[in-house]
Amino acid sequence: MEQLTERLSHIKMFVLDMDGTIYLGEHLFPFTKRFLSQVMRSGREYCFFTNNSSKNREAYLKKLSHMGIEISEDKMLLSNGVILEWLKENRPGESCYVVGTPSLLADFQNAGIPLDEENPDLVILGFDTTLTYEKLSKACAFIRSGRPVFGVNPDLNCPVENGFIPDCGSIAALVKASTGVSCEFFGKPSPHTLQYMLRKTGCHPEELAVVGDRLYTDIAVADGSQVTSILVMSGETTPELLTQSAIQPDLVVRDLDELANLLS
Ligand SMILES: [Mg+2]
């Protein structure tokens, strides 16, 4: 406990996951606002990070605003931003065939990355809720002809009101079954994402805490670093999953309500 208090005393910024952490679907948890004000009152800050590449920053700012949470643009981080910055730095000028929603395609265009449906340099797989068989076969043909493929986020499923829908990781699994090629993923838990979080927040690793409900993304992103990982049990992780997992958080709390108490 003393170790934990000592560790928390260094934290300046909480990077919060969204679904299962601050809300469930359309319902904000009753304690989320108290947690956010407790963070501010303790002299710390918070921002949000979501792996969901089917929506863009504007959509999330709007959703949060409807729930009564007003934040500045720079506090809303997405997997989309991680891959866009990486492409601009490491694959400058290369064109992409993007399997994604109109908002993901718009993010690429706004970042100045050329889109090409005929002769792209790279193939990008996103969480495409507008996926068609045509897009899949096109992507697979480009990959078979040697184009490198990257995935925006590795999540297999996305939680919705009544269960789950297949996410980017599942689309990539289908593409792999057809082509034999696996893609490198961005978003959480990619080390590119950890670097992105540190860059965007200006924090040193020991000043950052990532908070989320999913072990293989939210918690794994901090693995092997000085960043503190905090698991909330208000989402998809059950006590059984936690016991069996090789990925272990630095701290487990019931929910943000309990974390707020630790800050006061
Ligand atoms: Mg979550």
What does this structure look like?
- A hairpin with a 2-residue loop joins strand 9 and strand 10 (163-166).
- With 264 residues, the chain is of the alpha/beta class.
- It contains 11 helices and 14 strands.
- Strands 5-4-1-12-13-14 form a 6-stranded parallel sheet, with helices on both faces.
- Helices cover 39% and strands 19% of the residues.
- The chain folds into 2 domains: 2-51 and 188-263, Rossmann fold (3-Layer(aba) Sandwich); 93-185, HAD superfamily/HAD-like (Rossmann fold, 3-Layer(aba) Sandwich).
- The protein is globular.
- The structure holds magnesium ion.
Which homologous superfamily in CATH is the superfamily of the largest domain? HAD superfamily/HAD-like
Q: Order of strands across the widest beta sheet?
A: 5-4-1-12-13-14
Counting DSSP E segments of at least 2 residues, the number of strands comes to 14
Bound molecules: magnesium ion
Number of domains: 2
The value of Rg in angstroms is: 19 Å
Content of β-strand: 15-25%
**CATH level 1 class label of the largest domain:** Alpha Beta
Uncertain parts: none
Helices and strands, in order, run as HEEEHEHEHEHEHEEEHEHEHEHEH
Rounded mean pLDDT score: 96
Find the structural class using helix and strand composition: alpha/beta
Coarse shape: globular
How many alpha or pi helices?
11
Distance between the termini: 15 Å
Helix percentage range:
25-40%
Q: Which CATH architecture of the largest domain would you pick?
A: 3-Layer(aba) Sandwich
What kind of oligomer do you see? single chain
Please give the largest β-sheet.
6 strands, parallel
CATH topology of the largest domain: Rossmann fold
Keywords: Hydrolase
GO molecular function: hydrolase activity
Protein name: HAD-IIA family hydrolase
Pfam family, one: Hydrolase_like
